[in-house]
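Page 42, continued from yesterday. The earlier attempt failed because a stray header line got pasted into the input along with the sequence. Redoing it now with the clean sequence only.
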Amino acid sequence: MKCLALLLFALPLLALAAQPRVVKQGEEFTVEMPANPTTGYRWVFVAPPEGSNAASMFTMTADTFKLANLNGHQPMGIVGGGGFQRLSFRANQVGNSEVHIAYVRPWEVAKEMRTNTIPADLRHEVIPVNVVA
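This time it went through. Structure tokens are written below.
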């Protein structure tokens, strides 16, 4: 069971390490990550590092959660069930940049996230994105 949980968590991360996403200016794209909101953790769009143009290039447009599909059946009412969080973004301008997301309990790292400081022990993902005209 632990191996299955690890596999479910690791596979989407391997996909993120692939080539940069290519989207057209004005289009939306979605990042889907394994998550379990009953733990208090959630994926959030964090302030990009200083000097990055990501804050003006991307606008987060949606944040949804879907329970994991087990054996072809959608679980209904499973308390504590994991699944996938989907973050959608709009590409505002042409260029190359990165979307930074972190898996956090937002109330525990609010100060760091406002000051563009991502603690070393924080689970953090960087998604490269090329926006074309």
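Notes: The longest helix spans residues 2-16.
Reminder to self: strip header lines before submitting.
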